[in-house]
Design brief:
Order of helices and strands: EEEHEEHEEEEE
Structural class: mainly beta
Strand content: 25-35%
Shape: globular
Number of helices: 2
Strand order of the largest sheet: 5-4-6-1-7-10-9
Length: 136
Amino acid sequence: MNIALCLDEKNGMLFNRRRQSRDRVVTDDIVKLASGRPILMHPYSAPLFYGLGCAVDADESFLEKAGENDLCFVENALLLPQIARIRSVTVYRWNRKYPADFFLDADLSACGFKLVSSEDFPGFSHEKITKECYRK
C-alpha cells in the first residue's frame, strides 16, 4: 500500500483528536497522487475530499483492507502494525510546530524507507509546504 500523511515539524498529526491543520492545495495534490483510484481513509478524514472529484473509501479498518497498490490517507492511525505492507510514504510537512498529542509512530528511515524526492511549494493557507516521497 501507499501512504499519504501530513506532519508538523515534530511529526505531530493530531491534537485533542483533531487535525492540526489542513490545506486545500495538499488535498488536491493527494487526489492527483491517487491517479483516479479510490483513496482509502478513516471516516474522520473523508470530508476533506468530498467535492474534489475523487472516489473516497472511508472505513475504520482502511489500513487492514488496503491492497498492494492502494493509496491511503492517514491522519489518525498507527503505521507500525502495517509497516511491512507499506511500499511508499508521501509526507506533507506543514513546516510549523503545532500542539500535538498524536504522532507518527514510525521512524521511516529505521523501517527501510529512503527519501527519493523533496520539494517545497506554496499552499493555500501555508506559505511553504514540503512534500517528501519515501520508498522502500
